[in-house]
Amino acid sequence: MSGWNGLRYVGLLIVCACVGFVVQAFGAESGYHILRKIPVASGGEATWDYITVDYNKPRLFVAHETEVAVLDNGTGTLLASIPAQGAHAIVLVPEFKHGFITNGLNATVTMFDYDTLKKLADIPAGGLPDDMIYDPFSKRVFSFNTVGLNSTAINAADGKALGNIDLGAKPEQAAADGVGHVFVDLKDKNAVARIDTQKLTVDRRWIISGCDRPTTMDMDKKSHRLFVGCRDLMLYVLDSDDGRVITKLPVGDNVDSTAFDPESGLIFTSSEDGQIAVMHEDTPDSFRVVENVKTQEGSKTMTLNLRTHELYLPYGDVEKLPPILQPKTGGKVDQSGVRRRVVANSFGILVVGK
């Protein structure tokens, strides 16, 4: 081998080694992209909140302020509309043939029949119930009440309210470990609380150092890892046993949903700036960014279908309206008093997958 060819060979080895290091450090792309858009014939101009997938039937449940729209998850056909009063979250409990909706405007949780979708009862809850979760260990549903600064526990079998758990802070999203604990973000305290779902008490509370306004949550139950999205553009990984911060990873602006896929080890966080940050859990102590998937501005809520590994995100063209003292139904009011609505014929569901 000549001296020049030898230098070229060494150079190629160095380049290949560097490329290999980059791929190893940052990982290959996930393959996730927008597969299709499902236009939804909306019954109004209300904005949306959480979305829930039904694993037993091809249905999506979308909180749409004055209603929960029940859609065919393949075609987007409106199957039914469940009346609501400021709908935020939907929980399905097929085990007891019940579903539940948080109503932010009248401090109740609506229980409906899982099969017929008919309303069964309005259950009193704390002020402005927002997110909600089902704990399979205790067989209870927990609503998280942002004005009441508490959580309402409800028996999933019969809809009986069991009482409120004082959180002393504004709750956001939650996750259940399946062995008797529910974890919830405390947004205004930059903390996470752990609820004993049998005793209905808070038994742990951890400050997340560096986090600004924890808003999203999911977890890897097997490795005892919590994934908490914060408004400082970071996802914090916590040990769910002691609250220790393992690492943090960059995410988008105004994060609003996080989902973990235990089969692939991928973590997804959607944000209002129209992107999904895709991360991977290599080991319980090692995590990496895979890529950012472009979606649509405003599509910040999301649900993951663990069977198909597809993500569903509501989308629409949102416009701001002048604030009024007593907003009319259909105009959502945020903390600044600005009303928002979805432009007619612009609402739908993004399906993101491989």
Protein described:
There is one protein chain. This protein is mostly beta strands. The protein folds into 2 domains: 1-30; 31-353, YVTN repeat-like/Quinoprotein amine dehydrogenase (Methylamine Dehydrogenase, Chain H, 7 Propeller), CATH 2.130.10.10. The chain has 1 helix and 30 strands. Strands 2-3-4-5-6-7-8 form a 7-stranded antiparallel beta sheet, with no helix packed on it. Strands 1-30-26-25 form a 4-stranded antiparallel beta sheet, with no helix packed on it. A hairpin with a 5-residue loop joins β4 (65-72) and β5. The N and C termini lie far apart (46 Å). The model is unreliable at 1-27 and 326-336 (pLDDT under 50).
In short:
The chain has 354 residues and is mainly beta. 7% of the residues lie in helices and 53% in strands. It folds into two domains: 1-30; 31-353, YVTN repeat-like/Quinoprotein amine dehydrogenase (Methylamine Dehydrogenase, Chain H, 7 Propeller).
Secondary-structure blueprint of this entry?
Blueprint: H1 3-26, E1 33-39, E2 51-54, E3 59-63, E4 65-72, E5 78-93, E6 98-103, E7 108-113, E8 119-124, E9 129-135, E10 140-145, E11 150-155, E12 161-166, E13 171-176, E14 181-186, E15 191-196, E16 201-207, E17 214-220, E18 225-230, E19 234-239, E20 245-250, E21 255-261, E22 266-271, E23 275-283, E24 286-294, E25 303-305, E26 310-315, E27 318-321, E28 332-333, E29 339-342, E30 348-353
Antiparallel strand pairs: 1-30, 2-3, 3-4, 4-5, 5-6, 6-7, 7-8, 9-10, 10-11, 11-12, 13-14, 14-15, 15-16, 17-18, 18-19, 19-20, 21-22, 22-23, 23-24, 25-26, 26-30, 27-29, 28-29
